[in-house]
Automatic annotation (TrEMBL):
Subunit annotation: Component of ORC, a complex composed of at least 6 subunits: ORC1, ORC2, ORC3, ORC4, ORC5 and ORC6. ORC is regulated in a cell-cycle dependent manner. It is sequentially assembled at the exit from anaphase of mitosis and disassembled as cells enter S phase. Interacts with DBF4. Interacts with POLQ.
Protein name: Origin recognition complex subunit 4
Entry's Gene Ontology molecular function annotations: ATP binding; DNA replication origin binding
Pfam families found in the cross-reference section: AAA_16, ORC4_C
PANTHER family: ORIGIN RECOGNITION COMPLEX SUBUNIT 4 (PTHR12087:SF0)
Subcellular location field: Nucleus
Gene that this sequence comes from: ORC4
Protein's GO biological process: DNA replication initiation
Chief location of this protein within or outside the cell: nucleus
């Protein structure tokens, strides 16, 4: 095999690819959507025609990637690049219309033009900004492209003022603007007020990745392969062959199918491949199927079940007592006293393996379980009740508890009480 330096170079290339989310330049399988969106934005950028459109699709489907690839293609046109203005807003960052307006002013570089002016209304302020962009006559008004990420969050702003004004301008013959919203909510139109809805063009582009499983496996292979221009051709060839063999392995196929069924997005795929890659060393210079299996286990770990591993024996016994109560009373809520009685019964039966605990100690353990959010109070049963009688619900299911018991280190055998 080649020298360790080639291995470290190859690992560096792949790590960079996974950490910096080096995405393909255009999303796979969204060609018609790409064409449609490009055509729309061209009309605004070149012919000064206003438009509005929503890109709808699940998280990780490639909505942002689609928009980015369209913008890159659009900005390659010389007349567009010198003319169009971009304003990018995000519902997570611009949490109300005042902040959004400040951000629009900043991105259009108009802070000094606005200065200390006071405006009567939001609409007046926005109209002033767009007016300031004009170069004189109506025909030379510069087109503005607004992109609103997490579009559905803007619908929660007071009176939906921002959306109303943006859509209003896109309907009227003022400045040419294009409003592009990105959202993962299918019911987003239901969230719009009537006056906002009537000004929206009702154009929607659905970004649903039509990728099937063989394409997904091919994608994994591409993501793990070294590029053509790798310094040592022979090493790259050997590495790429080992990746090809890896993707054809039956156990690997099962792991990939599981991930494919959970989510087809790049982020979770990169996470999986990165974990597998981090175990590659000069003594284990290739990605073995076992590494991928382990990485998959880490990716899909159940955090609640993991928390159970850190509990004390007493806390674990209380969880089992709660599970018993759940089994007896068909998941009815319980309080501390009920759990304590159940626990005492257990102590009488198995007193030789678990020490007897004072009641305050048991209460403390019970409170700790609540802090860990393994149990929580039932709504509305709080304030007035004494804490020992406050009704609680267990937030773990049967399998999580049983799994924790089987994997608990040095667990007294008697604690595995399922009788």
């Amino acid at each position: 095999h080649s020298s360790p330096s080639h291995l470290s170079t190859s690992l560096l290339i792949l790590r960079e690819r996974f950490c910096f989310q080096k995405l393909p330049s255009a999303p796979v399988g969204l060609e018609s959507q790409h064409k449609h969106l490009l055509e729309l934005l061209k009309r605004t950028a070149i012919h000064g025609e206003s438009n509005s459109v929503l890109i709808v699709g699940p998280r990780g489907a490639g909505k942002t990637m689609l928009l980015k690839s369209v913008l890159n293609e659009l900005l390659d046109v010389k007349e567009v690049k010198s003319n169009i203005l971009l304003v990018q807003l995000n519902g997570l960052l611009q949490t109300d219309d005042r902040i959004a307006l400040k951000e629009i002013t900043r991105q259009l570089n108009l802070e000094n033009v606005v200065g200390d002016k006071v405006f009567g209304s939001f609409a007046e302020n926005l109209a002033f900004l767009l007016e300031a962009l004009k170069k004189g006559d109506r025909s030379s008004s510069r087109p503005v492209l607004f992109t609103l990420d997490e579009f559905d969050l803007f619908t929660h702003h007071k009176n939906q003022t921002l959306l109303y004004n943006l859509f209003d301008i896109s309907q009227s013959a003022q400045t040419p603007v294009a409003v592009v919203g990105l959202t993962c909510r299918v019911d987003v139109l239901e969230l719009l007020e009537k006056r906002v809805k009537s000004r929206f063009s009702h154009r929607q582009i659905q970004a649903l990745s039509p990728m099937d499983f063989p394409q997904y496996v091919e994608l994994v292979q591409q993501q793990l392969s070294l590029p053509q221009e790798f310094p040592d051709g022979r090493f790259a060839h050997e590495w790429n062959n080992s990746v090809k063999a890896l993707c054809e392995d039956k156990s690997v196929e099962d792991v990939l199918r599981k991930h494919f069924n959970l989510s087809k997005d790049f982020r979770s795929l990169h996470m999986l491949l990165f974990l597998a890659l981090s175990c590659v060393t000069p003594s284990n210079p290739t990605i073995k199927p076992s590494l991928l299996l382990e990485a998959s286990r880490l990716c899909t770990m159940d955090c609640k079940a993991n928390m159970l591993h850190g509990l004390s024996i007493l806390e674990l016994c209380l969880i089992i007592a709660m599970k018993h109560l759940n089994d007896h009373y068909q998941d009815e809520p319980f309080n501390f006293e009920m759990v304590y009685n159940e626990f005492k019964k257990f102590l009488q039966r198995k007193s030789h393996s678990v020490h007897s605990f004072e009641k305050p100690v048991v209460i403390k353990a019970f409170e700790h379980l609540q802090q860990l959010e393994l149990i929580r109070p039932v709504d509305g049963s709080a304030s007035r009740t004494q804490k020992e009688y406050q009704l609680m619900k267990l937030l773990l299911d049967h399998t999580q508890v049983m799994e924790a018991l089987q994997r608990y280190p040095q667990c007294p055998t008697d604690v595995n009480w399922s009788d």
